[in-house]
Specification:
This protein has 238 residues and is α/β, with parallel strands linked by helices. It contains seven helices and eight strands; from the N terminus they run H-E-H-E-E-H-H-E-H-E-E-H-E-H-E.
């Protein structure tokens, strides 16, 4: 055989077969009904992302799946439990980016993440904006983050978070008030507001547990493009 076959073509075929095996294994986990344990890895700045992660955990457990939480900022959470079949990643958008601690956690677990079914959810306020360009920002930011981290999630979702005015410091309170005013949200800084659509959070968990390929959260039935990574967000408040 030509020397180039061993140098280029053979390695390419080996890698191709490897990716096919991984894909078949992920499919077996979904389709074979053998998803028994799910890790939910998150970073939460003011508590709402953690609250959503816990709600997903509770929903999965109600469906008979053992789910456990891993705070990516906790150095003790560097090892997945044995027999973990799938992973859900979650983080809030803040200053137009996801937490660096979550991004830094991923390379240390890249091999594991690529070998399991994966879902990603983000939390923020842009999804509530009445301005289309603001809602589009989260889609673009998530797409860039996924490209940078090399992740290819099977499901994505974008949830509205909360305005915790009473817990913010003086500077952050005024910044969040300005952002909220621009987005047409509540600006009374003497009380807090929660916007998360908990029914949608449960639907997201259901889609993962039941491998609902046709669900609004699935990325596997869409073309591989920026649109295929579009996070499905909750409807605007009325």
């Amino acid at each position: 055989m030509p020397r180039d076959y061993f140098k280029f073509e053979l390695p390419a075929r080996v890698f191709g077969l490897l990716f096919e095996v991984i894909a078949l294994w992920k499919e077996a986990i979904f389709r074979g009904g053998i998803m028994k344990r799910v890790a939910i890895v998150y970073v939460s700045l003011h508590g709402q992302t953690e609250k959503i992660a816990r709600h997903i955990k509770t929903r999965l457990e109600s469906l008979g799946i053992d789910a456990y939480l891993m705070n990516a900022e906790d150095s003790r959470n560097e090892t997945f439990k044995s027999e973990t079949d799938a992973v859900i990643l979650g983080g809030p958008f803040y200053m137009q980016r996801l937490p660096s601690s979550l991004s830094e956690w991923i390379p240390r677990h890249q091999k594991f993440l690529r070998s399991r079914p994966l879902a990603v959810f983000t939390v923020g306020l842009n999804v509530l904006s009445k301005k289309p360009e603001d809602r589009k920002k989260d889609e673009i930011l998530l797409h860039k983050w996924l490209v940078k981290t090399g992740l290819h999630p099977d499901y994505t979702a974008s949830f509205a978070g909360s305005l915790d005015y009473t817990e913010y410091n003086w500077a952050l309170r005024h910044v969040m008030k300005w952002i909220s005013q621009r987005a047409g949200l509540q600006t009374n800084t003497h009380q807090d507001y929660e916007f998360t659509d908990w029914k949608m959070v449960e639907q997201f968990a259901n889609s993962i547990a039941n491998d609902e390929v046709q669900s609004q959260f699935s990325t596997r039935q869409r073309p591989v493009s920026q649109d295929s990574l579009r996070p499905h967000s909750q409807p605007l408040p009325t």
